[in-house]
Amino acid sequence: MKREFLINIVFLILINFLVKPVYIFFIESRVQDTLGPNEYGLYFGVFNFAMMLQILADLGIQNFNSTAVSRDHSLLRLYLPKILGLKAGLSLIYLIAGLTGALLIGYSSGSIIIFIWVSINFVLMSFILYLRTNISATGHYRLDSLISVVDKILLIMILGWMLFVRNSGSSFSLYDFILAQTIAYSLVFVMVLGINFSLAGMIRISFDLTLSKDIIQKSLPFSLVIILMSLYNRMDGFMLERMLDDKAYEAGIYAASFRIYDALNMVGYLFAVLLLPMFSSLMHSKKELDKLIRTGHNLILSASVALIAGIGLYANEIMSMMYPNHMENSYVNLMYLLLASFFATSLSYHYGTLLTAAKALRSMNRILFVGVGINLVLNTIFIPRFGAMGAAITTIGTQFFVLGGQYLLSIRIFDIKFNFRLFFRRTGFILSVGILGLVFLKFGGKSEWLVELIIFELLVFLVMLGFGLMKWKDFRREQKLLNR
After folding, report:
1. Which residue has the higher pLDDT, 66 or 321?
2. Of 57, 315, 383, 438, which has fewest CB within 10 angstroms of its CB?
3. Would you list the domain boundaries of the chain?
4. Mean pLDDT score, 377-406
């Protein structure tokens, strides 16, 4: 395993775990609890609709650019001015198409205003994520890791003032929440744009029709992957808000538990952001690639199991802390189901990124297309009968199907051999964590549940080391490092 990957992934996770839990547990949860299930459920449905369409503002350019620039850094200066011009045009198309879609599905005037504002935020985020690919692709991994939390730091400051200082949140509205996001994303956009200009030198933003066609043609396979992933990941929230005549109440309940699930998915996403350029640069070195595949799997498996077990043990306490005004049993039950889904999602990030780096997009798209079909059919059946619980059950089935397909495809393409020793180490780790969880469940007092949770996670980390899923020697410098 590459020392550089381990150092950067630990650094990336560390700074995200220092910042993002504060935002999730003390800021965004307070936003949801202040607005209530109905109002936040409306936002959740509109947000998911906007997110399903946001690929129109990118068309796979982020993944294409990350793999291209990581292999040849000189392409940064060529691509940056042209892609900025291209993305400006695509963003306009996204806004027009989204507004047309919102009108066709019957959104009210209030929902359309929310949609337009949320879509503008997605445009800003799309530019930020593209510009960050240039930073990571040129080897500035730790700088990119720091940038990944700047928006949350700004939101903590802005929303913290709105909720806790300005009239103690009594006058807080959904529009305040969206405005805070716009301010934070705008500031981060200016920052990453400046960093890109410093990396590429002085450039003039332009639009090159020939190059744009070439880039879009090369990135379209990436865009189909993202379209399909957005559909089966975000369809449930949109369908809950549209299919049920309950003023978005079930969507709001689902959003409360989905907030945890979505936050946990950031772990997989952070791995993917760092792994994509690394996998791409090692495609012609099977020995080094095999090491990275194995160690990446070990780390993301360990992280997901640790998080699932810890949050599952203290689900009631966590949800009561996050939503003191609207907490009910359905919140916890939904969380249990979504935690099961997260296990599949986290590993899917790993193998999906590997297949993307190998440009095995046609085969992966077939898997994702079937996943979308499964998600649509099951949601259509389960949501009218079971509401938010039906959407969560559908998510589990879809995510495990996609993971199974991606894993089998990776085995075939990369000739991954079954390792009995590694299998038993991973299985032993999971079983040991389960036993440790039963011990805490039986003997834990839960009066100081946060302290118990920290102790539990530290013990899980020691168990991970005991089973050799991460080894200290992996941090020692090897003779051959990743190209910077």
Report:
1. 321
2. 438
3. 3-417
4. 93
